[in-house]
Amino acid sequence: MKSSVIVFPGSNCDRDVAVALEKFQIKNQMVWHNETILPKCDLVVLPGGFSYGDYLRTGCIASKSKIINSIIEHVKKGGLVLGICNGFQILIETGLLPGVLLRNKKLKFLSKNVFLKVINTDNRFCSNYKNKDIIKLPIAHNEGNFFADDSLIKKLEDRNLIAFKYCDSQGKVEKISNPNGSSNNIAGILNDKKNILGMMPHPERLIDPILSGEDGSILFTSLLKS
User: Fold this and answer.
1) Residue 209: Cβ within 10 Å count
2) Which of 151, 189, 190, 221 has its CA 20 to 30 A from that of 183?
3) Which residues contact 172 (CB under 8 A, 6 or more apart)?
4) Of the residues 13, 41, 85, 167, which is catalytic?
5) Residue 206 has what DSSP assignment?
6) Of these residues, 33, 74, 141, 202, which one is catalytic?
7) Active site residue 202
8) Is 85 an active-site residue?
9) Is 22 a catalytic residue?
10) Does residue 211 register a pLDDT over 90?
11) Is the predicted pLDDT of residue 66 greater than 90, yes or no?
12) pTM over the 0.85 mark
């Protein structure tokens, strides 16, 4: 399997995700955002960070980068795209995923581990979570509050396009376990064809016991299996 990690000015998790991909023997290339042609690959990763310093809106300027048109063509051909944190914000700004990501409800930057309930394992990103539907991953964001109106929430729920929801250690999805105010506790969503995943938590940060956990590893092994 081959991957391309897109690097924007202000990216700070691009190397982390590259290490994760390479650990699972996914052949990776780093691609500068100003390139116009995407290397031949199966997976594109838009990493976390603060592209362009989050000026205007998070992910807004990055969504106008030259490489984006090539990523859109990649998606149309059925290629996989994973957007993590700022990458999720970029996917929303490009229109590849719906909704909007607002400031956290309490207007504070959040950096901590959270529990997640895996909602959909019928996709190439999450298939190996079938045997473990309650996981823990880190979040690190200021604008992770996923907002959608009632009609979009209904569509996401009805079409099973929600990948992860914030929950407690027992898997209960309640308001108290929602760290940022996201609608319906949503932490990650898929597109209709399920070849795009946008998520606020960072799977690349928990891929080894030395990092205090391996729940992120399951996402990368799912991609390999696919």
Assistant:
1) 8
2) 221
3) none
4) 85
5) -
6) 202
7) yes
8) yes
9) no
10) no
11) yes
12) yes
